[in-house]
Specification:
It contains 15 helices and 24 strands. It has 499 residues and is of the alpha/beta class. α2 packs across α7.
Length: 499
Amino acid sequence: MAVTKKKSVKKNNTIKLKFDTSWLYAPAPESKSAATIKPQYDLFINGEWQKPSGGKYFDTINPANEEKLSEVADANEADVNKAVTAARNAYEKVWKKMPAKERAKYIFRIARMVQERARELAIIESLDGGKPIRESRDFDVPTAANHFFYYAGWADKLEYAFPNRTAASVGVAGQIIPWNFPLLMAAWKIAPALATGNTVVLKPAETTPLTALKLAEIIQESGLPEGVVNIVTGAGATGAAIVNHPDINKIAFTGSTEVGKIIQRSIAGTNKKVTLELGGKAANIIFEDAPLDQAVEGVINGIYFNQGHVCCAGSRLYVQESVSKQVIRKLKDRIESLIVGDPLDKNTDIGAINSKQQLETIRKYVKIGKEEGAEMYESSCSLPGRGFWCRPTLFTNVAQSARIAQEEIFGPVLAILTFRTDDEVIEKANNSPYGLSAGVWTDKGSKIFNMTKRMRAGVIWANTFNKFDPTSPFGGYKESGFGREGGLHGLLPYVKLIN
Ligand code: ADP
């Protein structure tokens, strides 16, 4: 889109940039016809679709237009119990005893079927979650398939993953996932659990259950023995029933720090294994010697990718003072050219906010930011009438102690701070209750190593941001949780090393 700057208007600590849009891309919507969504989904327990025992269903809507897509079963304690019993039987009678290379064949088959149905999965992911089709098509779905391929490869090679040790499976894994990467999170959780010989009860988030249910269809078609993977839908109460079930051996949770703390309290005193992947407030640091245009693109990708619904989003930007004016100027220009709108349009950069509740949280933080005295800039783009939308937004003049610099917003809102020296920026970057990810932009390799050694974050990207790979471990420090998922490290939470 070509844009010419016109004027900026300042009102209530908000600067709105006004642009002339001289031309726009023609709409390029992906067709919905490749996706089949049933009007109602039951629970996937013991290899078959079972009605919820309470008879209750809840709606899942398209956040881009608030229309109902389907209704899904609300699993209660009795349903969770059925799922755990199915998983236990499958574990004891079939999966634990199956030769590892046979287990691998099933996981490879699931990986290939995810690839075969990639288009359908991408469309449903964008309809149910609001993320741009470009992301679900080019990132979420292929990366989900890659996780299944990667862990399928490990299934019969565990003796090389843990040399001179014997790795035994743990039993039944209870897995609870959030709404920001619904299919990918399901793959992150299910693939290593199956490869190491465990069975699974998985609960997707209540606002984005559809791709996990599609995955259940794939799993059913793959011929995976019944009960090895069970998928139950519901909200917090269903998640709590999984966490508290006495026959679960391991909990894997990705979600908010608040719920992570509840889970930790509930399992205290039990011998359940647990991994928690929680919130984040990543510091993205630009030094004056960095290639600024690339850095600006990286910052844009870091915070506006997936509407900022990313726990490792680069939501705190630290820019060295000597280049801060230049970087802020470039960022303002760049957010103006981001295309916000229909998630199914292939040109869309920023889709819909996942839910009304999340939009309210983002708005609350934008208000707090202004009240704290920071200066807000937002793109002047128009927003669709229905659905949940947020313009790409940034704040300058942000204090280190400001809530928008300390708390997770989980939306397309960037807090920009400045620094002069390396020591100062290390201190500021580490001054956070979180420690999930971070980024460093500089021309000097030695500086990258010096900085990353001193930063307290589980993943640190250098001269890039938000890059994921199944072979690479991911996880945090401090209130961002513990345990690693992905890579060789991601096998460990699913095994007992018995000698
Ligand atoms: P977010 O803020 O990302 O929505 P939540 O932590 O609220 O994260 O939700 C992540 C997942 O945890 C969802 O699947 C949700 O249903 C589930 N959940 C919410 N409350 C609980 C709870 N008390 N125990 C277990 N799971 C829960």
